[in-house]
Amino acid sequence: MTTLAAAEAQIAARDAEIGAFLHVETLRGSTDGPLAGLPIAVKDNIAVAGQPMTAGSRILRGYVPVRHATVVDRLLAAGAVLVGKTNLDEFGMGSSTELSAFKPTRNPLDVTRVPGGSSGGSAAAVAAGMAWASLGTDTGGSIRQPAAFCGLAGLKPTYGRVSRSGVVAYASSLDQVGPLAKTVREVAQVYAVIAGHDPHDSTSADQPVSAVAWRDDLAGLRIGVAREHLDAAEGLDPDVQARMHDVLRALQDRGAILVPVSLPHTRHGIAAYYLVATAEASANLSRYDGLRYGQRAENPQTLEALYTQSRAQSLGQEVQRRILLGTFALSAGYQDAFYQKACRVRRKIADDFHAAWQTCDLLLSPTSPVPPWPLGQMTDDPLAMYLMDAFTVGPSLAGLPALSVPVGVDRQQLPIGAQLVGRPFDEATILAVGDVVQRAFATGAA
């Protein structure tokens, strides 16, 4: 277990190379509680009072929140020690943490490769021993994919399960806060602290949080396998595909029943996600105009110039791209053709999952179609990077809980993650199954 002293030593020794943190500052919580003394890092789009918060963007330079996000309050009340704010793709818009306005983050397991994104700093901090656990945010895969790329466990809870109060908004119907750690059981420890209703968040669900019933086998559990997520998936790396079959055999060996299911609208997931998310982003980010919020351009001659110059100078290319796409999708004459159609497809994707629950208890897929790629490989090809979210956007659009579990490495010794998707508010089941899977591959027994 990573202690505070060990975390601080690793930050001093390795972060100059890895770039996991944007701000390092220790904040101690209660001296008692389930997380007492454990060092936890927080993604820099989650408010910590008195510490700078940039969301990875120049437009928020100099902003210091005056209150904690609800999840931070809960961590501190549980005894956690916060060690700093972690790097991210600007406003959470990216899959590699190369799109931060300040610096890229490198994968501690191979510093020539990306750590995933957008919560790459949170994943890198844990993988490098700079924190025992971390908080990230996940809109379309931003906790799960970095967890897979850094050999960690990472949980995106059900939409509404964890408060978003005090979290910078990207896409409000999709954003969710969740934990990353080296083991599923450590993820569950943090999840138990941060989950639950919050009256300060109008989207927070007032649903009971079930304790995880840990188990040693999976006897009788029905695990759905969608051909669209495995053998019929486009762009799936052969090593990732082979490892998923290893996982399926391990599940069967432990008593699980594999059930073929179909998620026919999966192929439309990327298109639907990048219309819904960008439309919501264009609305959420409209507040950063240099007048009400954000950095202001110097000496603009008109109000329009104030808006355009402030945004052009302080927002990165990818953020501008997504704002433009979302604004176009919502514009007169195009809203029905693009945004409304994407919302209908989103409903179809959710219906596919609902149909699957009639025959299975959870679903298994790869987390990412490929292992971590070299730094710089996709920065000039945004569409290629968007396609890396092929397996993670579906559960996000449907608001379902999803867990990435480390299941070994490929032939280049690069980590691979398996994704477990559960019924709404049934995090307990995917955590219990994820623990069995992780232990199977950690011991080599699989």
Could you please describe the fold and organization of this structure?
The chain has 446 residues and is α/β, with parallel strands linked by helices. 35% of the residues lie in helices and 15% in strands. It has helices at residues 4-18, 70-77, 120-127, 144-149, 184-194, 238-253, 269-284, 303-314, 317-330, 336-356, 382-386, 393-398, 427-442, and strands at residues 21-28, 39-43, 81-86, 133-138, 153-156, 176-181, 222-226, 257-261, 362-366, 402-409, 415-422. The chain has an 11-stranded mixed beta sheet, sandwiched between helices. Helix 2 (70-77) links the parallel strand 2 (39-43) and strand 3 (81-86). The longest helix has 21 residues, at 336-356.
Biggest sheet strand order reads: 1-3-2-4-6-5-10-11-9-7-8
The coarse silhouette is globular
What are the secondary-structure elements, in order, as H or E?
A: HEEHEHEHEEHEHEHHHHEHHEEH
Overall pLDDT score: 96
Count every beta strand, where a strand is a DSSP E run of 2 or more residues: 11
Strand content: 5-15%
User: What gap, in angstroms, lies between the N and C termini?
Assistant: 25 Å
Unreliable segments of 5+ consecutive residues: none
Total helical elements = 13
Radius of gyration using CA atoms only: 20 Å
Largest sheet data: 11 strands, mixed
Q: What percent of the residues sit in helical stretches (DSSP H or I)?
A: 25-40%
- Which structural class do you get from the secondary structure elements? alpha/beta
Brief synopsis:
By secondary structure, the protein is of the alpha/beta class.
Tell me the layout of helices and strands.
Elements: H1 4-18, E1 21-28, E2 39-43, H2 70-77, E3 81-86, H3 120-127, E4 133-138, H4 144-149, E5 153-156, E6 176-181, H5 184-194, E7 222-226, H6 238-253, E8 257-261, H7 269-284, H8 303-314, H9 317-330, H10 336-356, E9 362-366, H11 382-386, H12 393-398, E10 402-409, E11 415-422, H13 427-442
